[in-house]
Design brief:
The chain has twelve helices and 13 strands. The two termini are 41 Å apart. 42% of the residues are buried. It has a seven-stranded mixed sheet, with helices on both faces. A four-stranded antiparallel sheet has the order 9-10-13-12, covered by helices on one side. By secondary structure, it is α/β, with parallel strands linked by helices. The protein folds into two domains: 123 residues, Aspartate Aminotransferase, domain 1; 234 residues, Type I PLP-dependent aspartate aminotransferase-like (Major domain) (Aspartate Aminotransferase, domain 2, 3-Layer(aba) Sandwich), CATH 3.40.640.10. The protein is globular and about 75 Å long.
Length: 386
């Protein structure tokens, strides 16, 4: 089994031409394209340039396949998954569509990514909701403090699966249990975990899960998906609707029918026609995750991080700023030193692609990275510190 996985990761790396030129540790910002993604998109572009046939109907089949694909990755039934444009789409479904009343409370973290904060702030202003902020502990979401913030009018907990700036992974099983105990709706921004960290949305009791696919799922920007649990799907009433939320049976020859039933599935909330190029890129990429398996990718990524962390812990110059506990670690690791800005420039000049977040160097390892990439980084860090 191990030898088979080694071969799969080796084959996957060959699909990413950038590995010959740069060491890419920036998937947490956006993922590079494989040759499969590029070829699928280019083939469609060539076909559209020639325009010898109308293939627009194929987008419906691709979208339907992707609903099943993403459902499988997160442990959900296909009926509960829809195709969106980005993470904010699903978060907006929750913030503006969940059955909440004026005065209801939403709990957020002070160390949250802006996508959640701004979405819920806008919804709070429009709907008369109240936002409670949980103070962090060592710049990580404090699950122990969560229950102290739950009051009589608290209705929603909204968090990121993985924190963008330090890789802290929330224990969704624990948070889901707290939500069940207090009858809270559980909303998760999943973009920094999906594709790199295993998740089962039903076991965790998540009600709304949303993820863009341009990061860890290594797909084009402008593509994503959302999950709605059975208990909220029929209750959501967003302030927007598309004619494509109605079931036309994909027969568009007679459109003067305004009594079509809405889809019973999450597809009801998809907006307008699809972006076919995005769908093709998403479909070309998702097979890799199905073939290797998310849990295997997670183990692979964590092993690479362990290699880097072992060096940093032995250094007097660098310091790890990520949580390394088994429950809370992710495929992101961060570290700092006394000259972060200068170090970042030093690394970029030597073709290490990564970023600075909140005073730390952020390294995000993924399936196309290998031990040689990490060893090159360690060697560069060692030279800089000496």
């Amino acid at each position: 089994m191990r030898n088979e996985l080694i071969k799969k990761f080796g084959a996957a790396r060959k699909l990413y031409p950038h590995t010959k030129n740069v060491v890419y540790f920036n998937t947490a910002s956006h993922g590079p394209f494989s040759t499969q993604v590029r070829n699928r998109i280019l083939a469609n572009l060539d076909q559209r340039v020639q325009s010898e046939k109308d293939d627009s109907h194929k987008a419906f089949a691709t979208a339907d396949q992707l609903r099943a694909d993403y459902a499988g990755l997160i442990g959900a039934p296909k009926r509960s998954v829809g195709i969106g444009m980005n993470t904010s789409f699903g978060l907006s479904l929750a913030a503006f569509g969940l059955p909440l009343q004026k005065g209801d409370e939403v709990i957020l973290s002070e160390v949250e990514f802006p996508a959640l904060i701004y979405t819920w702030k806008a919804a709070a202003e429009m709907r008369g909701l109240k936002i409670k902020i949980v103070k962090s502990r060592n710049r990580c979401f404090d699950a122990d403090a969560l229950e102290k913030h739950i009051g009589r009018r608290t209705r929603v907990l909204a968090v990121s699966y993985v924190q963008f700036f330090n890789g802290f992974k929330n224990d969704l099983m624990r948070l889901g249990e707290i939500c069940r105990r207090h009858n809270l709706l559980f909303v998760v921004d999943g973009i920094q975990g999906t594709g790199a960290e295993s998740v089962n949305v039903r076991k965790a009791g998540i009600d709304v899960f949303s993820a863009g696919c341009q990061k860890w799922l290594l797909s084009p920007e402008g593509g994503g998906f959302f999950y709605l649990s059975d208990r909220v799907r029929e209750k959501i009433q967003p302030p927007f609707m598309s004619w494509m939320g109605a079931d036309w049976k994909e027969r568009f020859t007679d459109l003067f029918h305004h009594d079509k039933p809405l889809f019973a599935s999450a597809r009801r909330f998809e907006l307008g026609y699809y972006a076919p190029l995005n769908l093709l890129g998403m479909k070309a990429s998702v097979g890799l995750f199905q073939d290797i398996g998310i849990r295997n990718i997670q183990k692979h990524n964590h092993a690479l991080i362990d290699r880097l962390v072992a060096y940093i812990k032995g250094s007097n110059y660098y310091r790890v700023t990520s949580a390394l506990e088994p429950t809370n670690r992710s495929s992101i690791v961060t570290f700092t030193c006394s000259s972060v800005t200068r170090l970042h420039r030093h690394l970029l000049d030597r073709k290490f692609i990564l970023v600075v977040r909140e005073g730390s160097i952020r390294v995000s390892c993924h399936l196309f990275n290998n031990e040689a990439d990490v060893d090159k980084l360690i060697d560069c860090l060692d030279r800089f510190a000496s």
